[in-house]
């Protein structure tokens, strides 16, 4: 029998901390492995440490303690090799306003010591639907197009890893979904994607795995599907034939919620338990004389899980 070991992570973070001169501890002993070729979403509120973590891996911020390796290269001892494998799309729309799209993306490639390659620049611009804007000055572009230019700059040196720090902040819904398609295409071509986002639906739509960070601590890292299976709850919404003012006393023991208009009763249950209690609840509901015309089952979203994790005392 041949036993194969799992592939080595493309990024390995071990016991990483960061304390600023003010005494503020932005990161507290972060240990995390990123798998090659995955889309990893890092979720957390403002000030959680997301950008600090990305900045350390990208060599912009120096850690207080701990180690980071990128494709086997230590970011401190072998900075150039590690950084050459990374593309970074920052939150801020910092672009050279008076340069053309073609010039600024080409210049970014040169910063990494890469030889000129117009074919690569053309491919990147076409993939990001920027080809028809190649001769436009950055200052003339919309916010969504400027965001695409930032991605193009990050991809100009053909990195294996792409960090997206709030990539769709300030982008309208249509452009956001278009950019999701671009990111999926990059992943299909072998690029490892790490994104931070405030849009929970972005992580739910795109991520293979999810990490939740708050106050500098990594609360958990889990496959998205497994996380939703473990922590997700289900709800059964019953549309009542006649609205009511309050939940009957006979049903007080059940986890029921009444809508503001009194027309819908919602029963929340843990689908991991062997007995959901639905049958008993429906029987007791019938005994009260209440009738319902429709019912709908819903599973909690990643946003519900995220909020619940942050609200759990630690």
From TrEMBL:
GO MF, one annotated term: ATP binding
Ranges of residues in domain ABC transporter: 11-240
PROSITE patterns the UniProt entry points to: ABC_TRANSPORTER_1, ABC_TRANSPORTER_2
Keywords tagged on the record: ATP-binding, Nucleotide-binding, Transport
SUPFAM superfamilies cross-referenced by the UniProt entry: P-loop containing nucleoside triphosphate hydrolases (SSF52540)
Domain of life: Bacteria
Gene3D superfamilies tied to this protein: P-loop containing nucleotide triphosphate hydrolases
Stated family: Belongs to the ABC transporter superfamily.
Protein name (record): ABC transporter ATP-binding protein
Native source species: Lichenifustis flavocetrariae
Lineage per the UniProt record: Bacteria, Pseudomonadati, Pseudomonadota, Alphaproteobacteria, Hyphomicrobiales
């Amino acid at each position: 029998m041949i036993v194969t070991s799992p592939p080595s992570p493309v990024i390995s973070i071990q016991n990483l901390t960061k304390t600023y001169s003010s005494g503020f501890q932005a990161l507290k002993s972060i240990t995390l492995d990123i798998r090659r070729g995955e889309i990893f979403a890092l979720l957390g509120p403002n000030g959680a440490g997301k950008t600090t973590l990305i900045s350390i891996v990208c060599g912009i911020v120096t850690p207080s303690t701990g180690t980071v390796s990128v494709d086997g290269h230590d970011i401190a001892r072998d900075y150039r090799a590690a950084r050459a494998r990374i593309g970074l799309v920052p939150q801020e729309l910092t672009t050279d306003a008076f340069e053309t799209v073609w010039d600024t993306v080409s210049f970014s490639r040169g910063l990494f010591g890469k030889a000129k390659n117009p074919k690569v620049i053309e491919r990147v611009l076409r993939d990001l639907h920027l080809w028809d804007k190649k001769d436009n000055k950055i200052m003339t572009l919309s916010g969504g197009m400027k965001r695409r230019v930032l991605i193009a700059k990050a991809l100009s040196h053909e990195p294996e890893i792409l960090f997206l720090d709030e990539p769709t902040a300030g982008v309208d819904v249509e452009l956001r979904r278009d950019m999701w398609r671009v990111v999926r295409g990059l992943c299909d071509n072998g690029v490892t994607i790490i994104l931070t986002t405030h849009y929970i639906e972005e992580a739910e739509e795109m991520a293979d795995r999810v990490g939740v960070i708050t106050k500098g601590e990594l609360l958990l890292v889990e496959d998205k599907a497994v996380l939703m299976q473990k922590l997700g709850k289900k709800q059964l919404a019953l549309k009542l034939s006649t609205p009511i003012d309050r939940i009957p006393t006979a049903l007080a023991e059940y986890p029921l919620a009444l809508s503001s208009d009194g027309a819908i009763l919602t029963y929340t249950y843990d689908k991991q338990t062997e007995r959901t209690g639905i049958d008993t609840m429906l029987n007791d509901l019938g005994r009260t004389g209440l009738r319902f015309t429709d019912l709908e089952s819903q599973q909690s979203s990643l946003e519900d899980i995220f909020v619940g994790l942050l609200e759990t005392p630690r």
